[in-house]
Design a protein that fits this description.
175 residues, alpha+beta, Aminopeptidase
Length: 175
Protein backbone atom coordinates (compact mmCIF):
# COMPACT_ATOMS: atom_id res chain seq x y z
CA UNK A 1 0.00 0.00 0.00
CA UNK A 2 1.14 3.52 -0.76
CA UNK A 3 0.58 6.61 1.35
CA UNK A 4 -0.53 9.71 -0.53
CA UNK A 5 -0.98 13.27 0.66
CA UNK A 6 -3.07 16.31 -0.15
CA UNK A 7 -4.01 19.58 1.50
CA UNK A 8 -6.96 19.42 3.88
CA UNK A 9 -10.20 21.21 3.04
CA UNK A 10 -13.02 22.38 5.31
CA UNK A 11 -15.02 19.32 4.16
CA UNK A 12 -12.40 17.12 5.89
CA UNK A 13 -12.93 18.68 9.30
CA UNK A 14 -15.47 16.17 10.74
CA UNK A 15 -13.32 13.18 9.72
CA UNK A 16 -10.14 14.83 11.02
CA UNK A 17 -11.77 15.68 14.35
CA UNK A 18 -12.87 12.05 14.78
CA UNK A 19 -9.37 10.79 13.86
CA UNK A 20 -7.80 13.16 16.41
CA UNK A 21 -10.14 11.98 19.15
CA UNK A 22 -9.31 8.33 18.37
CA UNK A 23 -5.57 9.03 18.28
CA UNK A 24 -5.57 10.90 21.60
CA UNK A 25 -7.61 8.16 23.26
CA UNK A 26 -5.64 5.19 21.95
CA UNK A 27 -2.06 6.29 21.40
CA UNK A 28 -1.67 8.24 24.66
CA UNK A 29 -2.88 5.38 26.92
CA UNK A 30 0.59 3.99 27.68
CA UNK A 31 1.80 7.47 28.74
CA UNK A 32 -1.12 9.29 30.38
CA UNK A 33 -3.79 8.66 32.98
CA UNK A 34 -7.46 8.74 31.94
CA UNK A 35 -7.69 12.22 33.49
CA UNK A 36 -4.71 13.42 31.46
CA UNK A 37 -6.22 11.98 28.27
CA UNK A 38 -9.46 13.88 28.98
CA UNK A 39 -7.40 17.03 29.59
CA UNK A 40 -5.49 16.44 26.34
CA UNK A 41 -8.76 16.51 24.42
CA UNK A 42 -9.41 19.99 25.85
CA UNK A 43 -5.91 21.24 24.96
CA UNK A 44 -5.35 19.66 21.56
CA UNK A 45 -7.31 19.20 18.37
CA UNK A 46 -8.11 20.69 15.01
CA UNK A 47 -6.90 24.22 14.27
CA UNK A 48 -8.98 25.32 11.31
CA UNK A 49 -6.59 28.23 10.72
CA UNK A 50 -4.08 25.72 9.35
CA UNK A 51 -6.64 24.53 6.80
CA UNK A 52 -7.49 28.14 5.87
CA UNK A 53 -3.76 28.91 5.50
CA UNK A 54 -3.28 25.91 3.18
CA UNK A 55 -0.63 24.35 5.44
CA UNK A 56 -2.45 21.26 6.73
CA UNK A 57 -1.97 17.85 5.14
CA UNK A 58 -4.16 14.77 4.98
CA UNK A 59 -2.35 11.46 4.57
CA UNK A 60 -4.36 8.69 2.92
CA UNK A 61 -4.00 5.09 1.89
CA UNK A 62 -6.49 3.98 -0.75
CA UNK A 63 -8.93 6.74 0.24
CA UNK A 64 -8.73 6.04 3.99
CA UNK A 65 -7.42 8.92 6.10
CA UNK A 66 -4.35 7.55 7.88
CA UNK A 67 -3.21 10.75 9.53
CA UNK A 68 -2.95 14.50 9.39
CA UNK A 69 -0.63 17.30 10.37
CA UNK A 70 0.67 20.62 9.21
CA UNK A 71 2.93 23.53 9.76
CA UNK A 72 2.40 27.18 10.52
CA UNK A 73 4.06 30.55 10.22
CA UNK A 74 1.93 31.73 13.18
CA UNK A 75 3.01 31.93 16.82
CA UNK A 76 0.71 29.29 18.33
CA UNK A 77 2.79 26.23 19.21
CA UNK A 78 -0.09 23.80 19.83
CA UNK A 79 -3.82 23.58 20.41
CA UNK A 80 -7.06 23.46 18.51
CA UNK A 81 -9.82 25.95 17.77
CA UNK A 82 -11.22 25.46 21.27
CA UNK A 83 -7.87 25.75 23.11
CA UNK A 84 -7.21 28.81 25.28
CA UNK A 85 -4.22 31.08 24.67
CA UNK A 86 -3.83 30.85 20.91
CA UNK A 87 -1.70 33.52 19.21
CA UNK A 88 -2.21 33.93 15.46
CA UNK A 89 0.37 36.65 14.86
CA UNK A 90 2.82 35.89 12.09
CA UNK A 91 6.37 34.66 12.60
CA UNK A 92 9.44 36.11 10.92
CA UNK A 93 11.33 33.41 8.97
CA UNK A 94 14.59 35.29 9.52
CA UNK A 95 14.38 35.06 13.32
CA UNK A 96 11.63 32.61 14.31
CA UNK A 97 11.06 28.88 13.94
CA UNK A 98 8.06 27.66 11.96
CA UNK A 99 5.65 25.46 13.90
CA UNK A 100 4.85 21.83 13.13
CA UNK A 101 1.27 21.49 14.33
CA UNK A 102 -1.52 19.05 15.08
CA UNK A 103 0.07 15.78 13.99
CA UNK A 104 -2.22 12.78 14.46
CA UNK A 105 -2.09 9.21 13.20
CA UNK A 106 -5.08 6.94 13.04
CA UNK A 107 -4.25 4.22 15.61
CA UNK A 108 -4.35 1.32 13.11
CA UNK A 109 -1.80 3.19 10.95
CA UNK A 110 0.70 3.82 13.78
CA UNK A 111 4.32 3.01 12.93
CA UNK A 112 3.66 2.77 9.21
CA UNK A 113 5.42 5.97 8.08
CA UNK A 114 2.54 8.44 8.46
CA UNK A 115 4.34 10.65 10.99
CA UNK A 116 7.59 10.68 9.03
CA UNK A 117 5.73 11.69 5.88
CA UNK A 118 3.95 14.53 7.67
CA UNK A 119 7.22 15.81 9.13
CA UNK A 120 8.97 15.70 5.76
CA UNK A 121 6.11 17.60 4.09
CA UNK A 122 6.04 20.23 6.84
CA UNK A 123 9.79 20.70 6.90
CA UNK A 124 10.00 21.08 3.12
CA UNK A 125 7.15 23.61 3.03
CA UNK A 126 8.59 25.63 5.93
CA UNK A 127 12.04 25.63 4.30
CA UNK A 128 10.47 26.81 1.03
CA UNK A 129 8.79 29.64 2.98
CA UNK A 130 12.22 30.78 4.20
CA UNK A 131 12.39 29.23 7.66
CA UNK A 132 15.65 27.68 8.87
CA UNK A 133 14.17 25.97 11.96
CA UNK A 134 10.99 24.24 13.04
CA UNK A 135 9.58 23.65 16.51
CA UNK A 136 6.72 21.57 17.83
CA UNK A 137 5.03 20.60 21.07
CA UNK A 138 5.32 16.84 21.23
CA UNK A 139 3.56 14.33 23.41
CA UNK A 140 5.41 11.57 25.21
CA UNK A 141 3.92 9.15 22.67
CA UNK A 142 5.41 11.18 19.82
CA UNK A 143 8.84 11.74 21.34
CA UNK A 144 10.51 8.62 19.84
CA UNK A 145 9.40 9.59 16.32
CA UNK A 146 10.53 13.19 16.68
CA UNK A 147 13.91 12.19 18.09
CA UNK A 148 14.38 9.63 15.31
CA UNK A 149 13.71 12.46 12.82
CA UNK A 150 16.37 14.71 14.36
CA UNK A 151 14.34 16.80 16.81
CA UNK A 152 15.81 17.62 20.22
CA UNK A 153 14.09 18.65 23.42
CA UNK A 154 14.27 22.40 24.04
CA UNK A 155 11.99 22.52 27.06
CA UNK A 156 9.76 20.22 29.11
CA UNK A 157 6.29 21.67 29.68
CA UNK A 158 3.26 20.76 31.75
CA UNK A 159 -0.10 22.15 30.69
CA UNK A 160 -2.84 21.88 33.30
CA UNK A 161 -5.42 24.14 31.60
CA UNK A 162 -7.47 21.06 30.67
CA UNK A 163 -8.01 20.00 34.28
CA UNK A 164 -5.08 17.61 34.75
CA UNK A 165 -1.34 18.14 34.15
CA UNK A 166 -0.38 17.01 30.64
CA UNK A 167 3.36 16.63 29.95
CA UNK A 168 4.58 18.06 26.64
CA UNK A 169 7.98 18.53 25.05
CA UNK A 170 8.92 21.64 23.10
CA UNK A 171 11.26 20.21 20.47
CA UNK A 172 13.14 21.75 17.57
CA UNK A 173 15.25 21.04 14.55
CA UNK A 174 17.22 22.96 11.94
CA UNK A 175 15.97 22.49 8.39
Amino acid sequence: MTLTHRLATPADMPALTALMDDAIGALQQPFLTPEQIAASRKLMGLDSQLIADGTYFVIEEEGVIAGCGGWSARATLYGGDHSPGRDAHGLNPATDAARVRAMYTRPDFARRGVGRLILSLCEAAAREAGFARVELAGTLAGQPLYEACGYTVIERLTDDRGGAPVPLLRMGKGI
